[in-house]
Amino acid sequence: MKARQQGNALVLTIPTKFQVEPNTEFVAIKGENGSITYVPKLKNVFEEAAKAGEDLRTPLEEEYMHDIEE
């Protein structure tokens, strides 16, 4: 695999055998020895809940509330 120039960026091609879907987002991590690791970017459940107007604390409070009341 060889890095190639595309505009102002260097591009590494992902072989099709890895079966990565188009538009999949990754986070790049550079190691001490110059290695580069790409990790799929995960959704932030807290941001998703805030966008949907959900409060993630409510189910936990309801689940453990009986312990406090007893």
Automatic annotation (TrEMBL):
It comes from the Bacteria. NCBIfam families: MazE_PemI_antitoxin (NF047400). This is AbrB family transcriptional regulator. It comes from Enterococcus rivorum.
